[in-house]
Amino acid sequence: MTDGRNGQRTLVLLRHAKAEQSREGSDAERPLTARGHADAAAAGAWLARHELLPDVVLCSPARRTRQTWHGVAMGMTGSPAEGGPAGSKPAVRYEPTAYEAHPDELLELIRAVDPAAGTVLLIAHNPGISLLSALLAPDQADPDGLRTTDIVVHRPVAAWPTLTHAPLTTRHTARG
How far is residue 142 CA from its own chain's centroid? Predict the structure, then answer.
């Protein structure tokens, strides 16, 4: 891992792809819809086209976020085992605290990332992920928050452990 391209850090926030509505099972076990799978792959392809391959992936352990990561990884490289700069495999951490997290809890997960990581991808849920984006760039936040498979790219100027602010540079809604 490097400290980002030219010393630049990149934080990519991704709201999970479209999931089935709750039925009899728990909320954490809701799977993606067919559209959700296609959108996750489209998100991965978009990240690859924009050279936003992660060094570290922080992912909620909910089924829909794990499936989103798998689809993103497939869309980036054709294999969930690849990613990162020059095809290196990202460090993937399934973080229980990312499920139903408040923005400050998500921020703590990011602050704990290896300081040498250049690009971090966080895959989580609303409202936490939308509120985190607003916390990092309050003047640039979308008042409607992130929709399913929305990607927002923030460019922190501080090191991960001291992250408090990160301008939002790009927003994209991935659709397959």
Answer: 17
pLDDT at 116: 94
- Residues of the chain whose pLDDT is less than 70? 1-7, 78-88
Q: Which of 50, 45, 16 is nearest to 146 (CA)?
A: 16
- Neighbour tally for 141: CB within 10 Å: 18
* Cβ 117 vs Cβ 160: under 8 Å: yes
- Angle 92-96-99 (CA atoms, 0-180°, nearest 5)? 105
pLDDT at 138: 95
Name the CA dihedral angle for 98, 15, 153, 85, rounded to a multiple of 10 degrees: 70
pLDDT at 6: 47
State the Cα–Cα distance between residues 76 and 47, nearest whole angstrom: 7
Identify whether the C-beta of residue 126 lies closer than 8 Å to the C-beta of residue 148: no
Contact 75, 33 (CB under 8 A): no
Longest dimension (CA), the chain: 49
Ordered alpha helix ranges (H), the chain: 34-49, 63-77, 103-111, 128-136
pLDDT, residue 95, reads: 97
* 85 SS3 class: helix
pTM: 0.92
Give CA–CA dist 160/171, Å, rounded.
21
Q: Report pLDDT for 46.
A: 97
